[in-house]
User: What shape does this take?
Amino acid sequence: MSGLEDATRRAFLRASTLSCLVAASASGLLTLRPARAQPGVGNSQFAADLEVQLHATENHVPILRGEPTRVWRYDGKVLRGNPGSLGFLSHGYLPVLRVKRGQKVRIDLVNELPEPTVIHWHGLYVPADMDGHPRNAIATGQHYVYEFEVLNRAGTYWFHAHPDGHTGAQIYLVNGKPDFVLPVATRAYRLRILNGSNARIYKLGWSDRSPLAVIGTDGGLLEKPAMRPYITLSPAERVDVWVDFGSRSVGTELTLQSLAFDGAMAMGGMMGDVPLPNGASFDILKVRVEQRDNTKTSLPARLVPLPALRPQDAVNVRNPKVFNITMGMMVWGVNGRRFEMNGVTRPETVRLNSTAIWEFRNEQSMMLMAHSMHVHGLQFRVLARTIQPDFRSGYRTLAAGLVDDGWKDTVLLMPGERVRLLLRFEHYAGMFLYHCHMLEHEDSGYLVAA
Ligand code: C2O
Ligand code: CU
Assistant: This one.
């Protein structure tokens, strides 16, 4: 299994630019280590199984040939618990935390950047003050101590910076693997792919147009594999893909590409002279079959049971809450309101332990472009999409790749589209964000608290 894990971990790197990720996996042993450095002060009542110190810091890593590249990254170490819980990919550039459900985790963030920062645990159920709301950003030299129990099911979650107005700039980096070639053997792999780009939508497809078997989305495994001719992945979304190279011969090369599509920018947008606009095709990574391996694994027809989608459980089954994406004074907003650090409106207030239907609509703004809607602190289900007739031709170029199955925390909303979601508010009360994950939209005042 270790080869598989290794390959899968590397596979997403070239697929996206990203900061880092946290994977809640069902594996991983816990070994306790008494050694403790000097962490920030946490809650002495919280008995952490895993204690990690992360430094948001500037340093140099070898990414391109020649001189090392100056980057902002998370460095860190495990202070208590399994030292293997924290790993680094791409020459130390990308941190990966492996945690398991039920584990109590303490993370001491030290800000060594020259500006405020805070970490958001994208997709995880955590208390509001542990969720990385921009109002909790810390100044240079300060610590923020996160303490939470891992409640989510196994899946690929990720963590990233979330300070107001600087999220895009702090996350924007390359992925650390230029011209990446993934060596594989003639067997099956599970590839975990995260779109960590600021604003790029990927239409992932193989150069020989083989279909892709999706086995997981944002919040973990699907009920059954979903076959797609290509996969449409918007910023912050994740997919787990099952790929079997068993019928390929040694020496075969395959390229994972982002294929051409239209419609992400429908109206009023200023394209300017972008070298690689959203929708242009390009190569992401190359897979080279290097070895024979006769291990036969077949993809099960059923993966895990998921609770049924029951819209009738919603408090507003006949009356979905509508959130229109709007723009005023060149600043993005929701229902005409821009982000307020502490302000919440009545429709944005929900009851703990309730289920509701929300509908995001992308049809009223003077500038119609694709958005990637994310809700903090929960996982939702996608109930329905409707696209207005005028927008169908662009939409058709990527619609077959949408994967709305399973538990999600981020969803693509195309121009002229309505997306209806079923959300369950549970575990923690408090102020959580929902916003577009196109980070420049987010930074231009798009965050609204829920
Ligand atoms: Cu990954 Cu508020 O975001
Ligand atoms: Cu947006």
About this structure: Residues 332, 371, 436, 438, 441 surround copper (II) ion (ligand 2) (CB under 6 Å).
